[in-house]
Specification:
two-stranded antiparallel sheet; 5 strands
């Protein structure tokens, strides 16, 4: 395919497709076997992601901060991912099904970094949110 034949309109729905969300199957942190856990997320091109990202940046601007600590950056990342979490199934902690909400998503991504890492990679991979 030559450059002159490539039609950029194929990307017009990127934001819409990202906002629709997709299922991320969580893998065991060592064996990489599928766990019976699925988290539904919006993508990094979605309005939800962009709004959460801007809010995190604005928080620091309002405080007049020129430098952000690593801890603040990590916390911002967790908050953004929690805002991008639409739902889940199979999230069980200490024998109890955990309800999907913003606070529980923050807790999940903080307490289980391997889940946060998988979700973070998934949200940023546009292939997960584009139509074939």
């Amino acid at each position: 395919m030559t450059d002159e034949n490539f039609d950029l309109s194929k990307f017009d729905t990127l934001e819409e497709d990202s906002e629709r969300g997709a299922d991320c199957e969580i893998l065991h942190p060592v064996t990489e076997e599928k766990l019976d856990m699925v988290i539904t997320l919006v993508g990094s091109e979605s309005k939800t992601f962009k709004k959460a990202s801007r809010a995190a940046q604005q928080k620091h601007v309002k405080k007049g901060k020129r430098r952000i600590t690593i801890d603040e950056m990590e916390e911002d990342g967790i908050v953004i991912l929690a805002r991008c979490t639409m739902g889940w199934r199979g999230v069980v902690i200490e024998g109890k099904q955990i309800e999907c909400n913003f606070e529980n998503a923050k807790m999940l991504y903080t307490r289980f970094p391997f889940i946060k890492k998988q979700v973070d990679v998934f949200v940023g991979d546009l292939e997960n949110f584009t139509k074939s």
